[in-house]
Design a protein that fits this description.
single chain; 2 domains; mainly alpha; 6 helices
C-alpha cells in the first residue's frame, strides 16, 4: 500500500490532466486495482508514468533542490543526506532518480519508502567513497 502523500499526488495528477472518473478507473484497472488505496510502489510508478504521458507535470521539474518539509519526518534526514552526497559529487537528482528507477523500479527517489531510501543512501555513500579513493590514488601516482 502507498502512503497518503502518494495518493494525493495521484489525485492531483488526475485533476491536472482533466481525467474523468471513468477514465481514472480504467487507468487503475490497467494495473489490476480498483482504488488508489490498493496500489503498491510498483503500480504507483506505472500509474504516474501514464499521467506523465498524458501531460502531468510536477511543480519541481528542475529538481535542483527538493522540498524536504513536505516529506514524512522519517524521510527528511535521508533526503537531506542524499542531497549532500549529490552536491559533493557534482551529480543531479536525475542521476539519483535513474538509480531509483533501475534498482527499485520507482521513477523518483522521493517516492521510495524508508527502507528503500536507506538502501539508496547506502549505495550512494559506497559510490562516493569509491570515487574519492580513485581520486586520491590518481593524485598519488
Amino acid at each position: 500500500m502507498i502512503s497518503n502523500a502518494k495518493k494525493a499526488v495521484i489525485h492531483i495528477a488526475k485533476s491536472q490532466v482533466g481525467m474523468s472518473n471513468e477514465e481514472y478507473h480504467d487507468l487503475l484497472s490497467s494495473v489490476s486495482v480498483t482504488s488508489s488505496k490498493k496500489l503498491n510502489n510498483k503500480t504507483f510508478s506505472i500509474v504516474m508514468n501514464q499521467f506523465e504521458q498524458l501531460g502531468f507535470k510536477t511543480k519541481s521539474k528542475t529538481r535542483s533542490k527538493r522540498k524536504v518539509s513536505n516529506l514524512p519526518n522519517r524521510k527528511q534526514p535521508l533526503i537531506k543526506k542524499l542531497e549532500a552526497i549529490i552536491l559533493d559529487m557534482g551529480k543531479s537528482w536525475r542521476y539519483v532518480d535513474a538509480i531509483s528507477k533501475r534498482r527499485f523500479d520507482i521513477e523518483t527517489a522521493q517516492w521510495l519508502e524508508v527502507p528503500e531510501l536507506r538502501k539508496l543512501v547506502q549505495m550512494m555513500v559506497i559510490y562516493q567513497k569509491r570515487q574519492l579513493k580513485k581520486e586520491l590514488e590518481s593524485m598519488i601516482k
